[in-house]
Amino acid sequence: MLRSDANFVNTRTFRKGTRFHWEKTFILAENELKAVWHHKPLLVNAFLNPILYLVFFMAGLRGMTGGILVNGIEVDFLPFTLPGILMMLVISLMGHTVYRSTIDKRWGLLGYKFMNGISPLSYVTGLMVYPFFVFLVQGVLLAVLSLFYGITYSIMNLILAISLGIVGIIFWCSLGIIITTRINDYHQRDIVLGLMTLPILFTAPTFYAIESAPVYIQFISWFNPITYQVTAIRSFFLGQPDILMIIIATAISIILLLLAVLLIAKAELVSNEH
Amino acid sequence: MVVNLDENVIEVSQLGVQYDNTVWGIKDIDVTFKKGELIALVGANGAGKSTFLNAICGLIMPTKGDVFFNKNLINRNTPFHNIGWSKQTHAIDWYLNVFDNVIVSARLAGKNRKASKIDTLAALDLVGLLEYKDRDVDALSGGQQQRVQIARALVHHPDIMILDEPTTGLDAESSEKLLSHLKEKANKGGLVIVSSHDLNLLDSYCDSVLLLKQGSIVAYEPKTKFISRYRDKEILTIEYEGELDKRKLVEIEGVVTINDLKPLVLEIKRNTPIGQIINKLDSLVFVMDINRTSPGLREAYLEVARAKEEG
């Protein structure tokens, strides 16, 4: 039964038609950065991670591994695996998005934000600001540190590679938000994330050439988004942009972003987390 | 800032919320909330109070029925711009400090950075958290965390306040201060809906009472009318030393119900001479103090709830 009086507004319309609003997105983004600033160990951890990966993992393996063939050209192990490390960092940033969106859902802040006029797109992009920022610093750190190992890149290729990494963040953070909206149980979510990360990272050409992997891994890699993301980033690092891979990596990010926006717009605002 | 609210602020029509397609949290609720009132939403645990408040705010989509807000007060895209809302569990960002948890509400309501800062400090001062403004919220006590939520609900000076058990965890002084502030807002023409189990506190401040039971409205009327259902009884509160056997009290003539044993709280018929009661008690324990009062919201609530159960 709808009230005919035009002087009244139905609460059913409260969540409909909220548009993207730059100012509110900035307020949310500022909030997200403040949230991390209040927990500085998170930042320290985020900035130490790439250094540790490079110094202890990549540099260590480089000594026992020769060059890797990419499109018939032998490439040094370090520049080959750098995109893989970048994708590892991107996936770990997905965990942050999952955690932040879970807090919002669990404690009723999601409803609070939506009822304050934050649109689903503003919400999703606002949550990605911290991962963008951290990834930018991590990417630059990795590039600078690799100079000490005799690896150099053109500034333009570096900027393009990091930009594509940011496109990857859109994909993985959107996926994180989708997981949060679909799974209401903390433990179940942790299990899904834990089980997902390792196979995803190692069924793609992150740290080895996929051609040298068993056939079943090569088959799985076709369905693994990291295959396209890491190959596209690597193509920039190696100065031979792979347009098809770049298009696929960008397209799947846009699709996941739209899906995340769609699902968060329909999410329950009163927590049923347990 | 209280604008000129129209007479009817919220109209609820045939509202029902069903959980898991089986259980009705609330059902068939028809009610209109008018300006200038502080409404006490009361009911037992599980009566549907939180469901009702969440449905009013648009946080739960009703299974049936509708909630209408006065168009002059609510922008459908930013309803909380003019609603101060706090929920039963702490809707707090545990990663932010006290100040940042509160200021975001003012900023989202459209205030600039400077005005938001001023209003945030004022709101924190009002709830007694000014000296804790830089603390992490997880370092605060439960009552202080509740106050953070309340400060956030107040900071943007909304005309409509919808608060779910805001006094839970608050000390007596803070609860009184909060209710006094809310009453002032209602007196200026705002609308305040407060759910709480602290009926003695609500008694001093509310204008109307809405009693929910098993998801339905049992009573919604002015407090005085609600309490008048109880006009044929009085309350006798007796301080004593010693041990009392409840069975012996039942035999005393004039005692209708025993509400509490220590202190002893008896419901007696209005104008009952209490000499016989005191004499009887004196033979059982050492009576130290006696207080005879008219019933309040708490007694009326218990009476209505009891009558409904019997009915």
From TrEMBL, chain A:
GO terms for molecular function: ABC-type transporter activity. InterPro entries: ABC2_TM, ABC2_TM_bact-type, ABC_2_transport, Nod_factor_ABC_transporter. Keywords: Cell membrane, Membrane, Transmembrane, Transmembrane helix, Transport. One of its GO terms (cellular component) is ATP-binding cassette (ABC) transporter complex. Residues 41-267 form the ABC transmembrane type-2 domain. The chain crosses the membrane at residues 42-60, 80-99, 120-149, 155-179, 191-210, 244-265. It is a multi-pass membrane protein. It is found in: Cell membrane; Membrane. It comes from the Bacteria. The keyword NAD does not apply. The keyword GTP-binding does not apply. Belongs to the ABC-2 integral membrane protein family. This is Transport permease protein. The lineage of its organism: Bacteria, Bacillati, Bacillota, Bacilli, Bacillales.
UniProtKB/TrEMBL annotation, chain B:
Keywords: ATP-binding, Nucleotide-binding, Transport. InterPro entries: AAA+_ATPase (IPR003593), ABC_transporter-like_ATP-bd (IPR003439), ABC_transporter-like_CS (IPR017871), ABC_transporter_ATP-binding (IPR050763), P-loop_NTPase (IPR027417). Signal peptide: none annotated. Residues 10-239 form the ABC transporter domain. GO terms for molecular function: ATP binding; ATP hydrolysis activity. Belongs to the ABC transporter superfamily. This is ABC transporter ATP-binding protein. The keyword Chloroplast does not apply. Gene3D superfamilies: P-loop containing nucleotide triphosphate hydrolases.
